[in-house]
Amino acid sequence: MAEISLRNLTIEFGDFKAVDDVSLTVKNGEFVVYLGPSGCGKTTTLRCIAGLVGATSGDVLFDGVRVNDLSASERNIAMVFQFVSLYPHLRIKENIVFPLKARGVAKAEIARKLDWVTEVFKLGDDLGRYPAALPPGARQKVALARAVIRDPAVLLLDEPLSAIDEQFREEMRWELGHLQRQLGVTTIYVTHDQREAMSLADRIVLMNNSRIVQVSVPDRMFFDPVDIFAGQFIGSPSMNLIDLEPVSGGLKLGGSDVTLTPERERLPQWALSSARPLKLGVRPINVHLVDDPQAGVALPVDDVFSVGRERFFSFRIGDTIHQGVDKRRSNSGSEGRVHFDPDGFLFFDAQTGRRVGAEDAA
């Protein structure tokens, strides 16, 4: 196991800056997930940690030792990619022990380690089979077993579940998290799937446009985003984002005639008197249909629909569609009032997108 530190890491390909001045420390045994949209720099960062891509500037350190000049084979890392690459002509047992045989490990040690990973990954019934005979989830487990049998200091996973059918993915997510805790190996996992990040990570590293946007535990990433991108990328359905216009008596929702008042919505005084234009961020879980005219505001409700156990509704502010949770179990097209829960209000600078509060609203 190892602690990994990135210090002012920058990676350029010609004129394109794929990773821009990234600094981060991953603690020994920690499970860190790099999350972000395609092209944000997360996989390039992972490949640089692995030694597959060189840094233009900055440093990669394992346990405080600079490894920039070490090859991938010298860094004691194991990497599992999106698409499993098992040897089709070798049985599962032979696939798993292949890295040990290639390094000339003694037969007794190979047998001991094979017994260990077979027990950890519950692969005893599959050792004599060929990869083609296994379902996708089982093949990915074999790839993970082959990676960890080498006792790597660092396990690097590049979207390992994205090629697996949804029916296997949920189970594999649970198993992967359980296995990482059991093994205790320092793990960095790359994904664009927020569900994977939220369910697996000790900490999430959210990236966008080649830079780190926010680093935090999953709950804080959801409830305490640092900017509009973080607020809207995390959460499904996405966070509602509404322009605010200061008017006499409160804050008007841009594109409508509706005004949120300090009394009903408990608006903070700093937001009412802010010198900068604001946007209101409020997640669908904090927006509800209500019958009490004192508890909500009149807005056009377009539709009511179910997603699993949750029942949502869509409503319009101007030309923009927003969403909330229908706790009343209304019929589609019903006319209810919309209640915004002030406990879920987040305020953002409309120009910079950064989260703002009382201390920086002036």
Give structural attributes.
six-stranded mixed beta sheet; 362 residues; elongated; 10 helices; 2 domains; five-stranded antiparallel beta sheet; alpha+beta; Rossmann fold
Descriptive account of the structure:
With 362 residues, the protein is of the alpha+beta class. It folds into 2 domains: 4-230, Rossmann fold (3-Layer(aba) Sandwich), CATH 3.40.50; 237-360, no CATH class. The chain has helices at 42-50, 92-102, 107-121, 136-148, 166-183, 194-200, 218-223, 228-233, 262-265, 269-272; strands spanning 4-13, 16-26, 31-35, 57-62, 65-66, 77-80, 154-158, 186-191, 203-208, 211-216, 240-247, 250-253, 259-260, 278-282, 287-290, 301-307, 310-317, 320-325, 337-340, 346-349. The strands form 5 sheets. Strands 6-7-8-3-9-10 form a 6-stranded mixed β-sheet, sandwiched between helices. It has a 5-stranded antiparallel β-sheet with strand order 13-12-11-14-20. Helix 2 (92-102) crosses helix 3 and helix 2 packs parallel to helix 4. It is elongated, with a radius of gyration of 25 Å. The mean pLDDT is 90.
Helix/strand layout:
Blueprint: E1 4-13, E2 16-26, E3 31-35, H1 42-50, E4 57-62, E5 65-66, E6 77-80, H2 92-102, H3 107-121, H4 136-148, E7 154-158, H5 166-183, E8 186-191, H6 194-200, E9 203-208, E10 211-216, H7 218-223, H8 228-233, E11 240-247, E12 250-253, E13 259-260, H9 262-265, H10 269-272, E14 278-282, E15 287-290, E16 301-307, E17 310-317, E18 320-325, E19 337-340, E20 346-349
Parallel strand pairs: 3-8, 3-9, 6-7, 7-8
Antiparallel strand pairs: 1-2, 1-4, 4-5, 9-10, 11-12, 11-14, 12-13, 14-20, 15-19, 16-17, 17-18
Helix pairs in contact: 2-3, 2-4
